[in-house]
Design goal:
Blueprint lengths: L1 H12 L6 H22 L2 H19 L1
Protein name: DUF4244 domain-containing protein
Keywords: Membrane, Transmembrane, Transmembrane helix
Pfam family, one: DUF4244
Length: about 60
């Protein structure tokens, strides 16, 4: 049990921050996610749904 607690403390208080390789992998993952999100949002069906939602909101605000 004490060994587990010691290892947990070391893991939580170990190296602060990320190394250059971890930054590169994190940046690559963020770019991949942003690209996927952009592709989904600009697809025809999602774009139509968002446009309709905004138009309904603006029509409701005007009455």
């Amino acid at each position: 049990m004490w060994n587990l607690i010691r290892r947990l403390r070391v893991a939580l208080t170990g190296d602060d921050g990320m190394s250059t390789a971890e930054y590169a992998v994190g940046t690559l993952a963020a770019v991949a996610f942003a690209t996927t999100l952009y592709a989904v949002v600009t697809s025809g069906s999602v774009e139509e749904a968002l446009t309709g939602l905004i138009e309904r909101g603006l029509q409701g605000a005007g009455t």
